[in-house]
Write a structure and sequence with these properties.
Elements: H1 2-27, H2 33-83, E1 93-105, E2 108-109, H3 111-118, E3 124-130, E4 136-139, H4 143-152, H5 163-178, H6 180-197, H7 202-207, H8 218-226, E5 235-243, H9 252-265, E6 273-280, H10 285-297, E7 302-311, H11 315-321, E8 332-340, E9 353-358, H12 364-371, E10 386-388, H13 395-404, E11 415-417, H14 429-436, E12 446-449, E13 454-459, H15 460-473
Parallel strand pairs: 5-6, 5-7, 10-11, 10-12
Antiparallel strand pairs: 1-2, 1-8, 1-9, 3-4, 7-8, 9-13, 12-13
């Protein structure tokens, strides 16, 4: 619009100027300064105004008409919205039983990691790593791994894998060893299930050193266990979640042999466990977890051990990461869950907690109604129980977090931001933060918040008590 007015004014100015100059030349008129302003400024403006006035009036009328129609349309839409019922977005839930959980980082082990995050424990100066200027950098290093790593350097097999994989393998082995008691129970159940339902693995179990009883013949022992019915358990699936950065350097054979040796000592034959590696990125972790949990939920005769581990405590890795950046804080950590579908039963074991995950619902009131969560005592405490696995320094994340919990008793002091403890080692950090939810004290219901998925971790005994109270009331 402005361009059109300027174009008309320039045209009028040129036309008037040409006519006036030729007229003054023929009449030999000597103009003064007032004449120049009158004929070369005011007259073109007057002609321009006269030419564009009808068009301006027409444009103003059209805008007024359109605005009036928009007001009428908005009023009609509001009436329609008021008369139509509000559509409730359907929630999609995933539920798993948690039999064991663990976490290990530079801040401590299990609940000590949560305490370190609450105390805002930061990285320490690492004399074994140097930045671009040759000075030591800050890092979240697990010092205990250094001694274990120095002991394993004598192993010839360890010399052919990267330092990063060596540290990650030590973290994985640490978590497996933390679940020895549980894995022994699973091993016994797998044996009993195989003896009761199968025949192809009987010979392997008879010959396994862990199941040889010198006082009882193998035939007598087999007959005794075959007559005892047991819930069918076919397999232990081990899911190793790693960063996509190690996909090209990870030695599957070395890792597989190391884990297989541990399981064999526990009495689990190779036919009864399966190891799967998942290489994830920071952007794909949400969808990957949903698909993995959905698979596990549908496995009614299998149990899953999920281990998420990462380490960037390697000078070569740091040199790559720090390129073009002012600062980079490497870290290492590992977490684990032993989970099953809700229908799975394991001899002499009771689930500790239950995980309920919703992936397409942002209505907190509807979520609480579906979970039957209303007045919780933890609302009155100042102890954090909402684990935020995204960047708390991102203003968009904070705004969405506040909007999500706006209509609930959850206050800002209940938030616990887990991401800082992983430094810049972030590809697997969200999985670590999710698993930390199982480390909260039993009376609390842990809320794990992410923009794309929300998880709720509740003590299993509390759920049973709630169900019993409902049954008695009915």
């Amino acid at each position: 619009m402005v361009k059109k007015i300027i174009a008309i004014f320039i045209s009028c100015f040129i036309l008037v100027g040409v006519i006036v100059i030729y007229f003054w030349r023929d009449t030999q008129f000597q103009p003064q300064s007032n004449d120049l302003i009158r004929y070369f400024v005011l007259l073109p403006l007057l002609i321009t105004t006269a030419l564009i006035s009808p068009w301006l009036i027409y444009q103003a009328y059209q805008k007024y008409k359109d605005k009036k129609q928009q007001v009428v349309a908005n009023a009609q839409n509001q009436n329609v919205d008021a008369t139509e019922p509000t559509q409730v977005q359907k929630s999609t839930w995933l539920q798993l039983n948690i039999y064991a959980s663990g976490a290990y980082s530079a801040l401590g082990e299990n609940d000590s990691t949560l305490e370190g995050i609450q105390m805002l424990a930061g990285p320490l100066l690492d004399n074994k790593l140097s930045g671009s200027h040759g000075l030591p950098v800050l890092s979240y290093r697990i010092e205990a791994l250094d001694q274990l790593l120095s002991e394993d350097t004598t192993d010839e097999d360890m010399q052919f894998i990267t330092t990063r994989q060596q540290r990650i393998m030590l973290l994985i082995q640490h978590q497996i060893q933390q679940h020895n008691e549980l894995l022994n129970a699973i091993s016994a159940h797998l044996q009993h299930s195989s003896l009761f339902y199968e025949s192809q693995n009987l010979h392997e179990y008879r010959m396994h050193p862990a199941w040889i009883d010198p006082t009882v013949s193998s035939d007598e022992e087999t007959e005794l266990k075959q007559i005892e019915p047991v819930y069918r358990l076919d397999k232990l699936n081990v899911h190793i979640i790693l960063s996509e950065d190690v996909i090209h350097t990870w030695n599957d054979q070395s890792s597989h042999q190391s884990i297989q040796a541990i399981f064999y000592e526990l009495g689990i034959i190779p036919q009864k466990f399966y190891i799967e590696y998942h290489f994830i990125s920071r952007s794909s972790v949400d969808q990957y977890l949903i698909e993995l949990f959905d698979r596990i939920q549908k496995q009614s005769h299998e149990i899953a051990l999920i281990i998420a581990a990462d380490s960037e405590l390697d000078q070569d890795i740091l040199d790559e990461k720090i390129w073009g950046k002012n600062a980079y804080t490497p870290a290492e950590f590992v977490s684990s869950w032993c989970v099953t579908s809700p229908v799975v039963e394991i001899e002499q074991l009771q689930p500790l907690k239950t995980l309920k995950l919703v992936s397409n619902q942002n209505n907190l009131k509807q979520i609480f109604d579906e979970l039957d969560i209303h007045d919780l005592p933890q609302y009155e405490d100042e102890v954090p129980f909402v684990l935020v696995v995204e960047d708390g320094a991102d203003i968009k994340v904070v705004k969405k977090l506040e909007q999500f919990f706006a209509q609930s008793p959850v206050e800002p002091h209940h938030y616990l931001y887990c991401q800082p403890m992983a430094g810049h080692t972030q590809n697997v950090a969200k999985v670590f933060g999710l698993m930390l939810g199982a480390q909260l004290p039993d009376p609390q219901v842990a809320f794990v918040y992410s923009q794309d998925l929300k998880a709720f971790i509740q003590t299993f005994s509390e759920i049973n008590q709630d169900q019993e109270r409902v049954a008695i009331a009915d």
